[in-house]
Design a protein that fits this description.
With 449 residues, the protein is mainly alpha-helical. Helix 8 (246-381) packs antiparallel against helix 9. It has helices spanning 12-22, 39-54, 58-68, 79-97, 106-109, 113-132, 134-241, 246-381, 386-439, 443-448.
Length: 449
């Protein structure tokens, strides 16, 4: 990506002072050819810049290179090259941040004065800019830390909610037989209540009929009493006007006594019927109170039934969520298996490429030895005449150029291999972290175990 900004050049003396403040004592001549600008000095300057701007020390860079070579046998042979590539990777990051988007291995192994001056000027200016923006960066880091803590708290809360959901599901499973039993009892009580309601209606109808009959009997009793009173009055008036024989009066009195006895029996029977009706009414009132109590129990059971239905609905929803989470987990496990297979294939590919690089290096060493031998022979022949010497110098220069080109090609191949390895490894770590976050796992704790 092309840089959209640039920094002014800084004097070599000022660059030397800045690097000295970073912890690597150099002078202006160390950055100026022909005495200075040696690769090892330039590499140390870039390492100090990395430590200043990213916080990675030289020891940490070397440890990173050694960890990357831990899976390779005889890694000591390529350890210097690996350290150089690790330095190149982090120096490229720093240079890219400073606006230099074409930083390469040549800037480390074969530095050019003008280009090195430009790169170091950009890095120094970028360092000053970073120091000026340090409070803003620290505030961003604090916000990131706070956001990470909130994320951890939310993850813990999610775990707690999942645990509560699991407990609730198990509680629902435990309460399910009780719910079934209560539903059966509810149905029995409903049927019993329906029967009692029908009995109540029948009792009410019978009570109404008895009330009507009682009213009729009371009216009839009142009518008979009126008739008796009228007859007594009539009898009294008749006795006052008519003198009857004692026998006839005796018969009339006997008849009237019999009628009175019959009327008293009817009155007693009606009073017994009234008492019976009163008892039935009291029984109906008791029935009504029992029915009201049953209705209240039925209302409570209905509320419990509704609560049970809501709990069963929540249980079904929780089961559906659990099944969906199981499906997601299986998919993530399949993705993890595929990622592990890709990682294994990438490691095998790196091993093959490493073997190929070792073979090429051995061939290059043989070629170099052969070329050195030829160069020595040419050096001996150079004593014969100047023409042969010039020709030999030219051939030696070509051989050195070929050697440098061959080494450059090998370094490029090794750089590509290491970049591919680090890219795959970074993608694998990102995927593992994403998978652990989705599953709610602590990846560091798993790696520790």
């Amino acid at each position: 990506m092309a840089a959209s900004f640039s920094y002014p050049n800084v004097e070599l003396q000022e660059i030397a002072l800045v690097v000295h403040s970073w912890g690597y004592p150099i002078v202006e001549d160390d950055l100026r050819p022909p005495k200075g600008l040696k690769p090892e000095i330039v590499q140390m300057v870039y390492a100090c810049a990395i430590q200043k701007l990213t916080g990675l020390t030289i020891a940490e860079l070397e440890q990173s290179a050694e960890r990357s070579l831990a899976v390779i046998e005889e890694w000591q042979l390529i350890a210097p090259s690996s350290r150089l590539h690790v330095l190149l990777y982090h120096a490229t990051r720093v240079a890219d941040g400073a606006g230099i988007d074409d930083f390469s291995m040549m800037d480390l192994v074969s530095p050019n004065f003008g280009r090195t001056h430009k790169i170091l000027s950009a890095i120094v200016n970028f360092g000053r800019f970073s120091e000026e923006r340090l409070p803003f960066v620290e505030r961003l880091q604090q916000e990131y830390t706070r956001a990470s803590e909130e994320r951890d708290e939310l993850q813990q809360e999610i775990l707690n909610l999942r645990q509560k959901l699991t407990d609730h599901a198990s509680q629902l499973k435990t309460d399910e037989p009780i719910c079934v039993q209560l539903a059966a009892e509810n149905q029995g009580l409903t049927a019993k209540l329906r029967d009692l309601y029908e009995e109540q209606n029948a009792g009410f109808q019978e009570a109404e009929a008895l009330k009507v009959e009682r009213d009729k009997l009371v009216l009839r009793k009142a009518g008979i009493q009126d008739e008796i009173n009228v007859a007594l009055d009539t009898n009294s008036r008749t006795k006052a006007r008519i003198v009857q024989s004692p026998e006839r009066l005796q018969r009339i009195i006997t008849t009237m006594g019999d009628n009175a006895v019959e009327e008293r029996r009817n009155v007693l029977a009606n009073e017994a019927k009234a008492r019976t009706l009163k008892l039935k009414l009291d029984t109906l009132v008791a029935y009504e109170q029992d029915i009201q109590t049953t209705v209240s129990h039925l209302t409570a059971l209905t509320a419990e039934q509704e609560s049970l239905d809501a709990s069963l609905g929540k249980l079904a929803k929780a089961k559906a969520d659990l099944e969906r989470q199981i499906v997601v987990r299986k998919e993530l496990e399949l993705q993890q298996e595929r990622a592990e297979r890709r990682k294994a294939n990438a490691e095998q590919k790196v091993e093959r490429e490493q073997k190929y690089a070792d073979e090429q290096r051995e061939k290059s060493q043989g070629t170099i030895a052969k070329l050195k031998k030829e160069f020595e022979e040419m050096s001996l022949e150079r004593r014969d005449n100047d023409h042969v010497v010039e020709e030999t110098k030219r051939e030696a220069a070509e051989i050195e150029q070929k050697m440098a080109e061959h080494l450059r090609q090998n370094e490029e191949e090794l750089t590509k291999l290491l970049e591919e390895y680090w890219r795959l490894r970074h993608q694998t770590e990102v995927y593992m972290e994403t998978l652990a976050n989705k599953l709610g796992l602590d990846l560091e704790a798993v790696n520790t175990r």
